Amino acid sequence: MNPIRVGLLGSGIVGSGVFNVLKRNRVEITRRAGREIVVTQICARNLEKAQALVGNDVKVVADPIQMATSAEVDVLVEVIGGTTISKQATLAAINAGKAVVTANKALLASHGNEIFAIARTKGVPVMFEAAVAGGIPIIKALREGLAANHIEWVAGIINGTTNFILSKMRSQKLSFEEALKEAQRLGYAEADPTFDIEGIDAAHKLTLLSAIAFGIPVQFSKVTVEGISTLQSQDIAYAEELGYRIKLLGITRRHENGIELRVHPTLIPARRLIANVEGAMNAVLIKGDAVGATLYYGPGAGSEPTASAIIADLVDVTRLFTADPEHRVPSLAFQYEALADTPILPMSEVKTATYMRLRVADESGVLADITRILADSNISIDALLQKEAEDGSSETDLIILTHVVKEGAVNAAIARMQMLRTVKSKVVRLRMEELS
Amino acid sequence: MNPIRVGLLGSGIVGSGVFNVLKRNRVEITRRAGREIVVTQICARNLEKAQALVGNDVKVVADPIQMATSAEVDVLVEVIGGTTISKQATLAAINAGKAVVTANKALLASHGNEIFAIARTKGVPVMFEAAVAGGIPIIKALREGLAANHIEWVAGIINGTTNFILSKMRSQKLSFEEALKEAQRLGYAEADPTFDIEGIDAAHKLTLLSAIAFGIPVQFSKVTVEGISTLQSQDIAYAEELGYRIKLLGITRRHENGIELRVHPTLIPARRLIANVEGAMNAVLIKGDAVGATLYYGPGAGSEPTASAIIADLVDVTRLFTADPEHRVPSLAFQYEALADTPILPMSEVKTATYMRLRVADESGVLADITRILADSNISIDALLQKEAEDGSSETDLIILTHVVKEGAVNAAIARMQMLRTVKSKVVRLRMEELS
Questions:
Q1: CA distances, A239 to each of A231, A250, A268, A398, B69 (Å)
Q2: Where are the domains of chain A?
Q3: Catalytic annotation on A406?
């Protein structure tokens, strides 16, 4: 059989990984796929760098659209990032009847509905295993491996940079700023780390997971996002004292009346497997009604882990190449016409247990005032930790863990606490999940 | 489109799970598969029980071959177990051009080569996600999700019964016999637990994992198998003291000259995620050259977890139903004609680090004799723990951890130690793996 011809858009870390792994494992991949997968064209900003990567057998092309629509390309692999050229090239390839394999979560989270709709009319597959959790085959697991299940929730550590920072803050008692610097020094964080540390990258990925878990369109604009840049190491320490770890989780959960969609630092019981995922690793925990909880763990980024996911998609595309489009696995796991318009719940309707830290005056009556406010709001206290005032200080830390309660009620109670004279600084509020 | 019609062979725990989940999640599964999946016939030893399960809409059949070859059945789901009727019905279905989905590891581990060969000539898929690690989509992950990789090794906790027993022995300091009784009381172990506790069930599953990891035929007869029935709780305690946990692992690893294939109790560092998999849960760790290490965790048995895996296979079969057989995913992950005849290494050639416990006379010169034997055999000591003799005893425990060394050399050294007058009972030898 003729080889499947790949047009590789991007020659950076991921692009070079794809080229190198395809070359190194050519024989083994062909033994699996039944057909060779060959990069025939490459397009990159820096033509010389691209040429150096691919040698003389591969055509180096300057114009992404030209490559995406070339008669000598069967599949476009888009690893250039961004949402401008990547989108133009993706749509050009789809319109030319070519399959697309992409690692671009930002593109799909923001423009996925448009892209999948056009791909559907053209009958071409758009695959994105590499867009979520790097080398972990999480899209395939959720889309195909758990196809029997009514998915109840998905919770994942889906950003390696922030998990690295949180691991360092906990294990070495660093501040956020110190841990970020260490992450930058080791190449885990970019010079401008905003996308990672503010949770935006995780929100892109969660958007895709939520869509394929519940059969809904991608809805990035509806994700509630809180990053870790304001997280303080003392809260990590208090959490640990109470038997919890703090992880930046992407959480999406289905209820009768809608779907939760949120990224934020989260306290989880330290004994959970996912609480022990350290460093830049990723892990996704999925709860299905039939299977129960399953967990998927591995490297969430990097040249060859990402290439592993892209090439798995290429093998799938190769197998399906002559198949009837109606019988392919749908891009969003559910048949296009079967997508649902289940609403995304506003955050005020979301229920979680809550961790609060209050800096309070070390005087009598403080605890009575605060617990009264909670009682008035029907918020039950699950645990309470009052620290002794440090030597010479007239203030102390009060940590309260609440039972599960609506976010709106917690916000209202915190606003009232904040007005107490004895509450000396901004109340810290973190959400908790049992994940059981 | 017409529904896919399933003939369900077996109405026990797994069969009823398949029926119930297909029924409960009918709408959601159809939204994914694009086609309804309906049980149209059921065959079971106890016809009344089968009838009670399926109600009046499903035909209850007494003869498995009749159902397997029925014109009203598209796919045979084989969940009857054993290797006699299950094999006859599986081959009858394949010969009649029907797809087969099976949870039967014993059948495939022993007769897989024959079954896959006939399925290949008939162009029908034989799927077995449920045969390994229950609800975890590990077959799909390894066969498709990691298709880009040269797989280096696979190590898994793939028997829930033994993991439950080992967890109990460690956490509650029970003997093997006590923990087994508890497992039987809770339904985690059968009245005759031999298949589980002697590692045979794990060996069946490992046989399948090895085949799809490395593209080799199934070779159950070549698995080295040691169970946990002779494991003593003091070794679990000593392991813990040294920073290790003991798990029954199935391990298959590729070398230049052959493939390791072995099931045995194994010391692994307590800080590894897989070391913290407790109770009846399963987990499989896979090392690929591109992706690195990924881990898959979840329930390894039970009615609905197993049904989850079977129905995932049914959805795949549904999608591929009209596809050209040449473009389906091959049963053993690699194209049939691309299977390799890489030899399985004899155990004497396998290298591992080793844990030894010797019961020795509490007298001078003992340690010198033992370390001399190790030195003569070029076996380096990694750690040594000598316990004080218990009050009134003239014997004591000596624990030695060795560096990685060939099994044959360890066996020879142990044989020599065993002949020392000062070594008072059978030397306990356990293998260790770093899994890094």
A1: 12, 19, 9, 12, 61
A2: 4-135+303-338, 138-299, 348-432
A3: no
- Catalytic residue chosen out of the listed positions B140, B205, B247, B287: B205
Q: Supply the pLDDT for residue B392.
A: 87
Asked, colleague to colleague, whether A4-135+303-338 and A138-299 share their fold, the answer is no
Nearest to A144 among B302, B312, B322 (CB): B312
Hey, what CATH topology would domain B349-432 get? Alpha-Beta Plaits (3.30.70)
Question: What's the CA gap between B335 and B237, in Å, rounded?
Answer: 46
Is the confidence at residue A322, as pLDDT, over 70? no
| Mean predicted confidence (pLDDT) in A274-281 | 97
Q: How many CB atoms lie within 10 A of CB B133?
A: 31
* Angle between helices B176-185 and B160-171 in degrees, nearest 10: 120
CA–CA min distance B351, chain A (Å): 26
Distance from CA of B253 to the nearest CA of A (A): 16
Average pLDDT over residues A272-299: 98
The H-or-E segment that residue A386 falls in is strand A381-386
Q: What is the CATH number of domain A348-432?
A: 3.30.70.260
Q: Write the class of the CATH domain B140-299.
A: alpha beta
In angstroms, the CA A314 to CA A103 distance is 12
Task: Give the residue from A321, A25, A28 showing the smallest Cα distance to B334.
Answer: A28
CA atoms within 13 A on the CB side of B373: 20
How many CA atoms, within 13 angstroms, populate the side-chain half-sphere of residue B26? 10
What distance in Å separates the CA atoms of residue A385 and residue A398, rounded to the nearest whole number?
6
Burial class (CB in 10 A: 0-12, 13-18, 19+), A152: middle
Please answer yes or no on whether B25 and A296 come within 8 Å at the CB atom.
no
Positions of chain B with pLDDT under 70 = 321-326
Cβ of A319 and B328 within 8 Å?
yes
- Which residues of A fall within a CB distance of 8 Å from B322? 324, 327
Pairing type for strands A292-299 and A281-288 reads: antiparallel
Distance CA(B2)–CA(A16), nearest Å, equals 45
pLDDT, mean of residues A236-248: 97
pLDDT exceeds cutoff 80 at A98 = yes
Note the pLDDT tens digit of each residue in A132-166.
999 999 999 999 999 999 999 999 999 999 999 99
Q: Note the CATH architecture for domain A4-135+303-338.
A: 3-Layer(aba) Sandwich (3.40)
What CATH number has the domain spanning A138-299?
A: 3.30.360.10
Task: Give the closest-approach CA distance of B15 to chain A in angstroms.
Answer: 14
Q: Are B206 and B261 in contact (CB under 8 A)?
A: yes
